């Protein structure tokens, strides 16, 4: 009984996994199906807490218990107990009472599962990812149907909102989504809608989470956007390795196509698994099938000259999910200049990671309980591989808040402990930029080489801070695409926030000891 | 849900240039640069009227600017070439958009532009020095000495000592491609302005040259996958050498036109290795490959991503 409607079923057991623990999840599900036939089972997507997963979610009549990574024997006991009409609680990480028909994952008040809010993530780990019946029931009205009935109301809702883009893969960047829509709509000529789900940043998990756990939501909003803008194609762009996301998205698209009659084809196109390929104009190149991927010159941007030169709306799954909230009209949350929520993956020491949702007026600190770090962290890199280094997470999760703290907005908080050398970390990120750029423009291609060189020289006793600051400033302000502009951030912020570490290195001393060359 | 490739439904009805569907230059599908309407802008306090299609660089060139807008990679002799907008030595500062590359930025009515702010000049200086950091700067043995655009802008910008030095480690040099009797390639002088690729593909429609590789390995290469000019499908029209701003592409007759008259002091020995050519077996101006083989262009199709591409690493 996999992949079917699960909501309201009782007793029921859901096995929540992302691609990371998919195989283990399948085994548990198999065990549950074997041991008790009176219990409804379902494979659901990750809830965002991959370290707790496979997470077994056992429900009877409005009461749910969560079990993290149970053994198959325990799984058998859980299912048996459910079969008897009782919620097993022994060994549960949390037990929650809730409305039996709730469409959102019921979560405890505290602990990792209770971190943040669950607005766009509500259905993740609770709804069957590709069940169109369940999705339709829960919503009442699909976004696509609404757009077909009244495209203008959809446009007006979006074009009068203050929503900003989410994620580096979004062509509107951190800027106004309404402006992006207006340009696409006003540029005559067959628009295209692109869901840019290619995010190979190893820690930025939000897009993958949405495509694996709530693909119907993302595809429905994208299709509704296409209808509202008079677009004639929808393209879902993912990277090669995201097989589960792609498969579920494909199913979701096929199911939506069956029940709606937009006649807008939805195509799934894969691009390379390289960080640069997530940049919005490089995404266009990959979609067009170019064998070599480099950034496109702009202006004009994709909103006027996108796929095959057609006006193209490029949003990330994260942005489409936020658009769903706008269209729901569920009332404003978050900061007024950047309404909504922001998905943030918190990574602790490379061993634990969780993706949670914060209102944009919350501070990043609110995300920490997701990984329950001990007090040992002494800094963080915020914004992904090209994030900014900081000592404090008392920073609002809004675009302007993150910007004024010089941090990145790509939804990642990597906690760094006392053993992290900030100079080495900055060097690692500069090397990544030097090796992974597309090669098109001088400030990024040649600048990143010189940046690595200037950092090497710190180890030789030469800390030329003026030269370093000058170089990162030029990379940030004159690079052709977001890759080069963001690539300057780790070094810029490292110098600002941790300068004493640079001067110490220039004197031959690494405060953490890890750079001491023997 | 449809699975046909998207380009089959492309509504772009403009007929392609003959052969163009086989041409794979490896570069992005850039939009047209330039303004969509005429405008009045202010450059360093002077009013300039610009036409449709103009860029901010056109506006800057219409007046006496206070700063030297170098604009090394731009090329205005042909509509079909550029702006590649890669060198960023044409940066100016605008009130609304901060620093922008003038060669590709469209003037908009009421825009105020400054060429001599600290941020704009610093950006041009640093980017020029970044270019030189990857350049085998040996003008005295270079065939472009005296008629080289890189040399010109370096002089114009008073470069005395480039802040990042120049490419000096001989082991880093790429061998010189001297395989063709018509055109010599010295990639150590190349600034990746893409003019030659556009001249070859968009003007001559020959489909020989392409941009390949990424990051540090970005280089000018051949669409048929050849390693040398002689093995490429070159027809020796010479257009690439005509547009090249540096000594990277030279007609063989001019290779040592400007080197010092000292024995053993030649363009050839400025690089570490040489890919030499035996010219006897080439009967016509076409390279043997052009006559023998069909162009083996890499197709612009999406299947590329289900297999491993050669030059995406
Ligand atoms: S900034 Fe970097 S990645 Fe972007 S175009 Fe320039 S070289 Fe390519
Ligand atoms: S291309 Fe030749 S002439 Fe021009 S700057 Fe380089 S070495 Fe000098
Ligand atoms: S060979 Fe010459 S024309 Fe071609 S990219 Fe290099 S510098 Fe430009
Ligand atoms: S001339 Fe504008 S970027 Fe090179």
TrEMBL record, chain A:
Q: Which GO terms describe its molecular function?
A: 4 iron, 4 sulfur cluster binding; metal ion binding
Domain NADH-ubiquinone oxidoreductase 51kDa subunit iron-sulphur binding residues, every copy: 423-468
User: Sorted alphabetically, which keywords does the UniProt record give?
Assistant: 4Fe-4S, Iron, Iron-sulfur, Metal-binding, Plasmid
A Pfam family reported for this protein in Swiss-Prot or TrEMBL: NADH_4Fe-4S
Q: Does the keyword Oxidoreductase apply?
A: no
Question: Could you tell me the superkingdom of the organism this chain comes from?
Answer: Archaea
Q: Does the keyword Mitochondrion apply?
A: no
Say which family it is in: Belongs to the complex I 51 kDa subunit family.
Stated name of the protein: NADH dehydrogenase FAD-containing subunit
The scientific name of the source species is Halocatena salina
Tell me the organism's taxonomic lineage: Archaea, Methanobacteriati, Methanobacteriota, Stenosarchaea group, Halobacteria
Automatic annotation (TrEMBL), chain B:
Provide the transmembrane region boundaries. Answer: none
Q: Where is this region: Disordered?
A: 1-43, 268-313
Domain named 4Fe-4S ferredoxin-type is located at 181-214, 225-254
Q: Could you tell me which InterPro entries the record lists for this protein?
A: 2Fe-2S_ferredoxin-like_sf, 4Fe4S_Fe-S-bd, 4Fe4S_Fe_S_CS, NADH_UbQ_OxRdtase_Gsu_4Fe4S-bd, PSI_iron-sulfur_center
One Gene Ontology term of the molecular function aspect: metal ion binding
Compositional bias (Basic and acidic residues) at which positions? Answer: 1-14, 278-293
From which residue to which does the signal peptide run? none
Q: Which residues form the 4Fe-4S His(Cys)3-ligated-type domain?
A: 119-158
What the entry lists under Pfam families is as follows: Fer2_4 (PF13510), Fer4_7 (PF12838), NADH-G_4Fe-4S_3 (PF10588)
Q: Could you confirm whether the keyword Metal-binding appears in this record?
A: yes
Key words, A-Z: 4Fe-4S, Iron, Iron-sulfur, Metal-binding, Plasmid, Repeat
Q: Which domain of life is it from?
A: Archaea
Residue ranges annotated as compositionally biased, kind Polar residues, are 294-313
Q: Could you identify this protein by its name?
A: 2Fe-2S iron-sulfur cluster-binding protein
Its source organism is: Halocatena salina
